[in-house]
Amino acid sequence: MQERIRNFSIIAHIDHGKSTLADRLLQFTGALSEREMREQFLDKMDLEREKGITIKLQPVRLKYKARDGQEYILNLIDTPGHVDFSYEVSRSLAACEGALLIVDASQGIEAQTLANVYMAMDLNLEIIGAVNKIDLPGAEPEKVKQEMEDVLGIDQNEIIPISAKMGLGIEDVLEAIVKQIPAPVGDEEEPLQALIFDSYFDSYQGAISYIRVVNGQVQKGDLIKMMSSGKQYEVIELGVINPYMTPVQVLKAGEVGYLVGGIKNVVETRVGDTITGARNSAPKPLPGYQEVKPMVYCGLYPLENNDFEKLRDALDKLKLNDASLFYEPESSDALGFGFRCGFLGLLHLEIVRERLEREYDLSLMATAPVVVYRIGLTDGSVMDVQNPTHWPPAQKIERVMEPYYKATIMVPHEFVGTIMELCQEKRGVYLNLEYITAQRVIMTYKLPLAEILYDFFDLMKSRTRGYASLDYELAGYENSDLVKLDVMLNGEIIDALSFITHRDNAYVRARSISQRLRKIIPRQMYEVVIQAAIGSKVIARESIKAMRKDVLAKCYGGDITRKKKLLEKQKEGKKKMKQIGRIEVPKDAFMSVMDIEKN
Amino acid sequence: MNGWGEQQGLGLYLHVPFCLKKCSYCDFYSLPVRPGNLQRYVRAVMKELALRAWDIEDRRIRTVFLGGGTPSLLSASDLTSIMNSISFNLELDNKAEISLEANPTSLDGNALQSLQKAGFNRISLGVQSFQDQDLQILGRSHNSQQARQSIELIKNSGFSNFNLDLIYGIPGQTIGMWKETLAQALELEPAHLSVYLLQLDEETPLSRDIKDGLCQLSDEDTEADMYQAAIQLIEKAGLVQYELSNFARPGYECQHNLGYWKAMEYVGIGPGAVSFQANRRYLNKRNLLQYLTCLENDQEPELEELECMEAQELVADAMVLGLRLCAGINLERFTQSYGINVLDYYKDIIEEYMNRDLLEVDNGYLRLSKKAYFICNQVICHFLPDLKS
After folding, report:
1. Nearest residue on chain A to B13, judged by CA atoms?
2. Phi and psi of A357, rounded to 5°?
3. Closest approach of A553 to chain B, Cα-based (Å)
4. Does this model's pTM top 0.80?
5. What is the ipTM of this complex?
């Protein structure tokens, strides 16, 4: 049985055509009829479909009758295409024996792709290369093939030219999967070891895990155990996805499917965990499990104070489906009651925020995202700070550490100087530079995460006209000369606007935040003075002149209804503002400390 | 609900939807004159008056206002016929204020004398500016010379009660030009002055020119300075400000408009005219031909409902309008009319804005403080109920 199974992932940069190729595979293998087909079939979230980006495809089982006359089962297990989710990528890859690498014929390899391919190679996966979008006028498949050979050591003669859009080369891809990717080699007689590579929450069935059975087998009715927590559940339903959920009685070593166990949230079904039998347990879990920790924090506050419970409820519900989301109540003088939330990265943050607003009809204010700082205090203790409000007074601080990331930047060689300059501006430490082809360079720098979050990505993209790509991974904590900057409106510190910055950047950042606030905050009935200060020392000042005009000059019989509507709208508009003392601050102001909207 | 004014009775507004030429900033309902339309219009209006007399019953008409458009485009004899029709069909108070809006290009001395005989006792003249550059930008068909001549005519015809409309914040207008316009206006000794900040509806040609970058509105600070300059100069000349944009010699306040601001009922006649009766505002549809056809067939003109208010919306409506008056809202009369104590009903808002010196309670009146006038929306909007979604 196992020799006719092939488990594979698709590794591709955003926009390099992953979803379209998946659609073609579904069509070609007859998993879907023409009538059932719609674009981006395996994209699960509306948000993905809407933004045209794929974070992660739903797994799917395809039946393919190969040229050798045999029928094979192909399990496509996707990897999320964003650096925020690189741990999940590693677990998805661990569930496969091979990976299909898709590179856009006009773009070439991007840093993120490279990182994921390296990860696949580390896991000993067989890599099949394909150059996509060969039908496009700007396509340079030969050049890209050469690059793939030079950088990744993939024999360019074996790289398959395809056009997922036009349906070219699809069969070649399927044949390569069958021929090149090894069949799984698990032992059905061993105790069960199944890897959870994804899970989601269904309001009827609870947490549903996507699993790859590595050894042993699992049957409906079995009592199973999560190896990280020891918690036991009964298997209520097992099945495969082809591409609809189809129940089966048993899943054996090498197979991929879903498991329903009456589990009430996805925290119990963490990605990377191993499922084993409750009675006949495996001695060891599969390698590589770790609990992912949030890297980025921000405060989320309801614009309407009464919506606090509604926000809690919404977070509780999202958490059911998102084990990596962290939150705990906090309060702010300026914003009232809200939650400090932790995320894997900025994309994760944005997705969560957008879903809260969209699916739960909340209007939210978000404070600027911050990293987790580690502070050594004079009394010898160490504290983690993920909210600038909790920053201890200067005299109690002995040293401050911040997370550094190893950033891999791929860039055409003419931008090497540009990137070096940028990395230096952003407190980067040079590690390495490597020509992968005559035109393309991989640069490695150690950069503070805070700088990457702030505007590094935007600047990198704009200064290289979009040609540079970036990947990064945690490199550890290092000492930094950091200070807390407070922002004051009419002399009062607005806690939600405080942020942490390197001392060298403090003046520039103080000035830019003050100027930005001056533009964002509309004229009020009184003059508003904006100040930024380190401790008691003011280092930037701006002022917003008092409003002088807000009047309906004419209001007579024929026009009263219309004029009242204008006033009603104005009153409604005030609700979109946060009243801080007597100052009406637009809700976006709190994000403006770090303008992540641009990302 | 007939407001909280001291007098009873109705205001009567008659809309004359004709202009020789549309001004660049105007968003009122008006049309070019077509042969025969004026005569049909006059007959239709007279018929509407007769029909509406039924639902007005025997209520006294306190004020009459012919606005437009350009009512002075109608001949003196047409205007006389309309006045006769009003007197014949309705209970017109013998001391009623009867106003006619006029443009400088459409007045002559004989006509003015006939109008006086017909009962008109107030003229409101759309001067807008005494600077020809301003008048051109506004697309007015008169110049400042013609304006002065018209005013002399009005005065010589024995109209002691006349108003001049002036506009500030015109693209290209400097504060010096504005003061000059004010000075010239005051020299002519009007009983009443209306000074309006230019505020454009998006659909107007001037608004489009601004969008296209052909000209530019003044900035907020200049506009505020112009407003302050107007108050200072006009009051120095002995006129008293009684509403955000209106000034009068004592005793010459526009009674008709005071009716609006005291939330009193009014009846609108003619296409596009709005009525406020009981708790409803509605208008005769803005469609001249449909209007004419209906009345020529002895049918009432088609109506369009604008709003139908519940008790608390009526209160809010009256607050928003009443706070435009410099004297403010008479709290006792307000309670008599609406059955609520304003200071209790709006306690939080009133306290908040009194603390900020933007509202005052004095001698039985609630009013905006002077410094709140030009930013009054900030205060007034809070008196409205929340938007129904």
Report:
1. A557
2. -70, -40
3. 6
4. no
5. 0.95
